[in-house]
């Protein structure tokens, strides 16, 4: 396994929660039993209508992680996709693992990924982020010392509803991927779920 570098984002400000959004898909997830992958895949496809396969893969893998915590499934947002594609385009020449927002001024949630070589897929990025679950301690609402878990907590953040992501093979031959989340998660002092 080649090294993967990730950065997490922590929001320093707090906004009112958006509770007015109700996601239809969450109603179609039967309670009591974790829906199977095929069901989550089919729902994700519906929530990403008109998407290319790569986008469905981003959305499906996010929704797998969310379903495991009974969080409402996310839907794909083409405005966020446009933003993510813009930022991926900005990174194509250098492939630097950089956020699109200045530190402390995040308007959207953002997870970014860099992988050496051209074969990294959306599911690789989402797995790398979601694997941080093992470092997240719900009781203390913190990451294990010296570890990151902010990518994971953004993925399963309760109030987040929409995502848009992009993948680019850079001129260096490596891969950069970015996902944006709205409303953003990772409010300090709040738990993800
Ligand atoms: C569902 O997908 C997850 C993530 O890709 C995988 O770990 C798991 O084994 C899959 N479960 C089934 C039943 O296919
Ligand atoms: C998902 O959709 C496909 C194609 O419509 C269908 O054949 C399959 O049974 C569905 N799977 C589940 C688990 O609903």
UniProtKB/TrEMBL annotation:
It comes from the Eukaryota. Residues 1-24 form the signal peptide. Gene3D superfamilies: CAP. Keywords: Pathogenesis-related protein, Plant defense, Signal. Residues 53-189 form the SCP domain. One of its GO terms (cellular component) is extracellular region. The keyword Signal applies. PROSITE patterns: CRISP_1, CRISP_2. SMART domains: SCP. Probably involved in the defense reaction of plants against pathogens. This is SCP domain-containing protein. It comes from Hibiscus trionum (Flower of an hour).
């Amino acid at each position: 396994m080649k090294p993967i570098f990730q950065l997490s984002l922590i929001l320093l400000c707090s906004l009112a929660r958006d509770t007015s959004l109700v996601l239809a898909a969450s109603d179609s997830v039967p309670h009591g039993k974790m829906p199977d992958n095929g069901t989550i895949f089919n729902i994700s496809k519906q929530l990403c209508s008109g998407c290319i396969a790569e986008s469905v893969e981003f959305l499906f893998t996010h929704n797998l992680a969310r379903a495991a915590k009974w969080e409402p499934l996310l839907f794909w947002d083409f405005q966020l996709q446009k933003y993510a594609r813009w930022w991926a385009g900005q990174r194509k020449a250098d492939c630097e693992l950089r956020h699109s927002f200045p530190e402390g001024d995040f308007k959207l949630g953002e997870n970014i990924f860099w992988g050496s070589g051209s074969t990294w897929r959306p599911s690789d990025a989402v797995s790398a982020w979601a694997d941080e679950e093992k470092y997240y301690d719900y009781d203390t609402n913190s990451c294990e010392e010296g570890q990151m878990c902010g990518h994971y907590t953004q993925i399963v953040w309760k109030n987040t509803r929409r995502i848009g992501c992009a993948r680019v093979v850079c001129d260096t031959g490596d891969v950069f991927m970015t996902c944006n989340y709205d409303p953003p998660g990772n409010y300090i002092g709040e738990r993800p779920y």
